[in-house]
């Protein structure tokens, strides 16, 4: 059996304090597998550490303490071994007693950095400034040890100090430039920092060094997803799915990529599977509801979205989106009988009266969307506009850019007119003899039907003023 089968468990990417939350059912099969390995190789310190990690999910006992003793003895300068031993001791004796024990070890073995690192990590729970200072002191005392910089970076990123965290990891990489784990650490902080291209670059380097490194494909997949590279994100999430089959969160992420790639049927199945595996996964419930709405299944969409809104932990952005969608769907359902009656009787009187009672919230501009549009307009103001780059048959993703450009304050010319006056006659399929043309353009799961009239093209796109910003009506 290969040693790689017994890598000590770390959290997502960092060498951070081990999670000792107990579970009711430790992985008995895995425990037996490691024990069988140790019968053949009793001096394998990594395997003893893995066994201790597995046993730590249950109640403490002689087997756990023996595994910890062996891992600390065989791996005397292993940070994870000392930290896990300290955490287990903390259960029965308290934090103060454990700190004193580690301080005694440090006095007896000053040449070891690992016990000092474990002590600093425990201090971070109650004395964050003291922990930061201690990690810096350890880094000064052990200048060729990258671990203090990595653990310091972990604390800094949790405090939101991403630039300082990046500098710490870069210093660690000077010491160990070929550490796949440290490159993965850098990729994760770059991801949190929002520098997505740099996150991908760091993740690529980590994968180049160790393509089986746990968590790295998910980090890169997230960076690709946030940068709207759906195919690349899907590829990485597929790898994670093979590594962790039936993980509802990964299934939800794969479904999101499929939606953006227009594969709605496959996405729906994955969202449904994710909800079946974890009914409490609100984001999957919400995605399923939004997808049902897109596929014109209003009643089930309303049911799913309402269920998602019951979760008090739903973040504000998703809650706002879900509530708006729900309000629109409910309004559509209210108006449907009036619309059917208007078509049947060829009279719009009752429908017009029903429209007059539409909730005011649905008639107002969304403040956050308007703010984003203004930001986009500022970016667009630095570029020259060429209507031919945004032809009527192009991707609908260009529409926000056209709309934003219309709001730019230019010293010369009518910007709004230039923004919307795309010359249809130059289009490869334009036909002046056919004034009414229907063009369908799709991007991801959004679609739109545009009816163009060549003689009065500009007049058919009207700029509606509201909340201080124009909105093009397509």
Commentary on this structure:
By secondary structure, this protein is mainly alpha-helical. It has a domain at 371-473. The chain is built from 23 helices and four strands. Helix 13 (230-243) packs antiparallel against helix 14. The longest helix is centred in the last third of the chain and has 30 residues, at 316-345. The radius of gyration is 29 Å and the shape is elongated. The model is unreliable at 1-23 and 409-474 (pLDDT under 50).
What letter string, H or E per element, gives the SSE order?
A: HHHHHHHHHHHHHHHHHHHHHHEEHEE
- Overall mean pLDDT stands at 79
Question: What's the story with the biggest beta sheet?
Answer: 2 strands, antiparallel
Using the CA coordinates, give the radius of gyration: 29 Å
Number of strands: 4
Look at the helices and sheets and give the structural class: mainly alpha
Overall 3D form: elongated
Report the helical percentage.
55-70%
Widest β-sheet, arrangement of strands: 1-2
Quaternary: single chain
Q: Gap between N and C termini, in Å? A: 64 Å
The share of residues in extended strands comes to: 5-15%
Uncertain parts: 1-23, 409-474
Number of helices: 23
